[in-house]
Known about the structure:
Layout: H1 2-14, E1 33-41, E2 46-49, E3 52-64, E4 67-70, E5 80-88, E6 91-100
Parallel strand pairs: 3-6
Antiparallel strand pairs: 1-2, 1-5, 2-3, 3-4, 5-6
Amino acid sequence: MNRLITLFILLAGLSLPVSGNTLPEYYPPTFTKWGTLQNLNIQNGTAVIGDQGFRLSARLQVYTGSSRYGTAHNLRNGMTVGITASTQQRNQLIREMWVLPKDYKPAL
């Protein structure tokens, strides 16, 4: 019975949203860029983060504070996000995006 209660408490803790600089273990220590998601257009495959335009990879992976298996449909304008991006045919291409707490600040 004690094991069942302990398991329940652990699982409940995994579903809590992230806050401050406490990020889930599957988040990387740094991002290519982070900022406010100002405009997301899933149909066109574009995003604007901190006034910089990006293309979205057809295989975009989205991570949230409660799941490693999110989709672009989990994202909303105004969210704070971190990304990994690469240059492909002169475009910045987002391959991965992590939802961050509003008050996120990178570790110094």
